């Protein structure tokens, strides 16, 4: 019996060989729906196949988490040590790191957790080299830092492994809304022209996922993969940075070769020579998108010298959880001065989204 990959390949060949016109539109839609269903089965098999092995669990700490994902022996442990002052084992042979090793980088008032992950290899998303455990741990990160060196710089292969594991780098969730119903069939509503899919294809893929009634509202020009990502419901969307280590050992036109091979820009780095490390710290900080919030006591002035550093789009609840675990339970109201306030001293609740340089006063029960 043909494997799922073989079945998908056969259907893709049929689509390629089918003339595209109005008469074949419905047939092509069904074929794409079959591929979507097969890929869903494939993912389910991956999840089941991941069971029984040892997993990696690292308690998140600090204000944000960065996962170092790369090939074995490209300098991830050395970079962790340089960024955080940790003492991870470093050696010249592969697979020195066998567990996830955490460290904390203090930078501009933010405490950023850095995770040194075991090296992954091609086929990691299918479980090779304990790849599933590494990728599972990476899914919880706020940034993924892809790392290679001048001898092993196929960052694009790492991207593909993460993509196959449901991690979408430098993307945002698709702007799609689905309202299931008990009857009426499928209605497709779009606020922008759809140039990559037809309504028939969309409807067929929805049926492949067991949705036969409902309204789907689409606010961007989606393709099949984007719709499947939305329906799968288990995708992770996270920013990324790409670094190439040992750049001090570069030879000939290796930088140009790297850029041409991976098809993108990267950060040149030499951990050993301390080249590019400070620039990388700044880039990590900027990419995470921190804001500063100044805390004000009820009967005093705000501390404008020592702000609380938190991620963009954080709420009053985020600050309460950061300050003390009881603050949410005892919360009464808060007052905000700054960009997020409609007027100075606006009273807000736990779900109010804060902006950079806001002044915040939190009032709890018993105060």
How many DSSP E strands? 16
Give the terminus-to-terminus CA distance. 70 Å
Unreliable spans? 91-95
The domain tally reads 3
Largest sheet: 6 strands, mixed
**Helix-and-strand structural type:** alpha/beta
Backbone CA Rg: 24 Å
What does this protein look like?
It is a single chain. The chain is an alpha/beta fold. It has three domains: 4-49 and 174-232, no CATH class; 64-171 and 236-287, Rossmann fold, CATH 3.40.50.300; 290-364, Ubiquitin-like (UB roll), CATH 3.10.20.30. It is built from eleven helices and 16 strands. It has helices at 4-17, 25-49, 76-84, 131-138, 155-164, 199-208, 224-232, 254-262, 277-288, 316-323, 327-330; strands at residues 64-70, 101-107, 110-116, 143-149, 167-169, 176-180, 186-190, 214-218, 236-238, 240-245, 267-268, 290-295, 308-311, 331-337, 346-348, 358-364. The strands form four sheets. Strands 2-3-1-4-10-11 form a six-stranded mixed beta sheet, with helices on both faces. Strands 13-12-16-14-15 form a five-stranded mixed beta sheet. The chain has a three-stranded mixed beta sheet with strand order 6-8-7, covered by helices on one side. Helix 1 (4-17) packs antiparallel against helix 2 (25-49), helix 2 packs parallel to helix 6 (199-208) and helix 6 packs parallel to helix 7. It is flat and about 75 Å long. The model is unreliable at 91-95 (pLDDT under 50).
Which descriptors apply to this entry?
alpha/beta; Ubiquitin-like (UB roll); 3 domains; 6-stranded mixed sheet; 23% strand
Helix and strand arrangement:
Layout: H1 4-17, H2 25-49, E1 64-70, H3 76-84, E2 101-107, E3 110-116, H4 131-138, E4 143-149, H5 155-164, E5 167-169, E6 176-180, E7 186-190, H6 199-208, E8 214-218, H7 224-232, E9 236-238, E10 240-245, H8 254-262, E11 267-268, H9 277-288, E12 290-295, E13 308-311, H10 316-323, H11 327-330, E14 331-337, E15 346-348, E16 358-364
Parallel strand pairs: 1-3, 1-4, 4-10, 5-9, 7-8, 10-11, 12-16
Antiparallel strand pairs: 2-3, 6-8, 12-13, 14-15, 14-16
Helix pairs in contact: 1-2, 2-6, 6-7
């Amino acid at each position: 019996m043909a494997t799922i990959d073989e079945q998908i390949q056969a259907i893709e060949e049929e689509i390629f060989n089918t003339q595209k016109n109005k008469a074949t539109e419905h047939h092509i839609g069904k074929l794409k729906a079959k591929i979507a269903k097969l890929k869903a089965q494939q993912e389910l098999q991956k999840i089941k196949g991941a069971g029984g092995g040892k997993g990696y669990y690292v308690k998140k700490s600090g204000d944000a988490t960065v996962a170092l994902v790369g090939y074995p022996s490209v300098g991830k442990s050395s970079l962790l040590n340089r960024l955080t002052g940790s003492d991870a084992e470093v050696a010249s042979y592969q697979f020195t790191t066998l567990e996830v090793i955490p460290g904390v980088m203090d930078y501009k008032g933010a405490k950023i957790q850095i995770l040194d992950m075991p090296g992954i290899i091609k086929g990691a998303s299918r479980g090779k080299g304990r790849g599933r455990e590494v990728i599972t741990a990476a899914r919880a990160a706020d940034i993924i830092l892809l790392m290679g060196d001048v001898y092993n710089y196929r960052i694009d292969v790492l991207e593909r492994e993460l993509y196959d594991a449901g991690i979408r780098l430098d993307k945002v969730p698709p702007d799609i809304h689905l309202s299931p119903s008990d009857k009426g069939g499928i209605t497709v509503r779009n606020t922008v022209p759809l140039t990559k899919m037809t309504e028939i294809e969309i409807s067929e893929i929805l049926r492949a996922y067991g949705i036969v009634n409902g309204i789907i509202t689409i606010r961007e020009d989606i393709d099949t993969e984007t719709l499947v990502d939305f329906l799968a419901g288990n995708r992770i969307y996270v920013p990324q940075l790409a670094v190439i280590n040992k750049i001090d050992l570069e030879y000939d036109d290796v930088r140009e070769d790297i850029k041409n091979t991976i098809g993108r820009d990267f950060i040149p780095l030499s951990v050993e020579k301390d080249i590019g490390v400070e620039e990388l710290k700044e880039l990590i900080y900027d990419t995470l998108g921190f804001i500063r919030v100044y805390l004000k006591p009820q009967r005093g002035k705000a501390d404008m010298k020592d702000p609380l550093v938190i991620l963009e789009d954080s709420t009053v609840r985020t600050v309460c959880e950061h300050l003390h675990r009881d603050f949410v339970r005892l919360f009464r109201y808060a007052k905000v001065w700054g960009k997020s306030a409609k007027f100075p001293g606006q009273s807000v609740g736990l779900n109010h989204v804060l902006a950079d340089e806001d002044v915040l006063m939190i009032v709890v029960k018993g105060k």
